[in-house]
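My current task is to audit a protein record that another person submitted. Alongside the sequence sits a line of tokens, each denoting a local backbone shape. Where you disagree with what is written, explain briefly why. This is what I was given:
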Amino acid sequence: MGLIVQKFGGSSVANAERVMNVARIVTDTYKQGNDVIVVVSAQGDTTDDLIAKANEINPNAHKREMDQLLTAGEQISISLLAMAIEKLGFPVISLLGWQAGFNTNSIYTQARIKSIKPNRLQAEIAKHNIVVVAGFQGINRYDDLTTLGRGGSDTSAVAIAAALKADKCQIFTDVEGVYTADPRKVENAKKLKEITYDEMLELATLGAQVLNNRSVEMAKKYGVELEVLSSLNPIPGTIVKEAAKMEKMLIRGVTKDKDVALVSILNLQDTPGIAFKIFSRLSAKNINVDIILQSFGRDGTKDIVFTVNKYNGPLAVELLEDMLDGCKIVCNTEVAKVSIVGAGMESHPGTASKMFEALYESNINIQMISTSEIKISVIIDAEDADRAVSAVHRKFIPED
């Protein structure tokens, strides 16, 4: 009937019982007359366990060697899943990322896909094999194994779907779709039937852990329709697609991100080009900056405050201390970013004030604010994050 790409995360293949469950989902899709390519992550907490093992030996190991180690997790998963599918009596073959044609750049542990040469995938599909592919990995021009960073298996699946013009790309997780908030934290969270690429991209970037933001970006670029659904409960999930003909809902989701550091540069000399020098220095070290706030100059100085990934906070301070004399540089890692996302807010004045009212009523202080056409983000104390999400969600999403 068509070509279906299915991706299963680590929790979906965490043990033998779940591997067999995934095998049944895959073979049921195959029995319906579809060609099937399956992308699999490492089992459970395997990647974290491998990182811990590396740190026991050498906390400062070269990233090339980390990639050599981390790719082992997916190799285990694809082999076990292929064995399970074989046990059910279906033709199957497992392929590592490089065997599936993934070529990446050479930024170890954070590689980007440069191209996919799908010849092997096409050949195996032509033989009517179910193809099980190791997500999260590829090979660079030096024939070194590389990994794509956290959530890289989502990106692998979408890349395959784009390269082979698949009819659908299904992302199976341990939740039943995309919700207006984390259903494990917010009691009244509602599952969405559909969501736009832009809304999903904002949610993923702002902390929602259902889909990797790079995978959504790629899906939008190549027009890959995504479905997010549960590997444990066989019900329809959430469709991620273009905005046309979708109902307008003011807010599609409320998210939090505690993986944030707030860096403050105080008493900075107010000279032309200083902002360029600061942020180009950070960019050269692949440190992504999110929200930026600059004060008005006073007495020849100004303050610049910005957010980065919590992991990069100390490095950002170190880089700037070497560069800026006479400034006080402070890094606060006890903050969180809480955001609302929805294309509908473009035509609804007062959305920001409604969000701020919810936080005020819960006695939550706002440290920074960032807005765009479809999202509003605030920086608050990390300890208030869960309360903030619940308060904002109650304000925008009515209870049944």
In short: The CA atoms of residues 161 and 241 lie 14 Å apart. The chain has a mean pLDDT of 91. Residues 63-87 form the longest helix (25 residues).
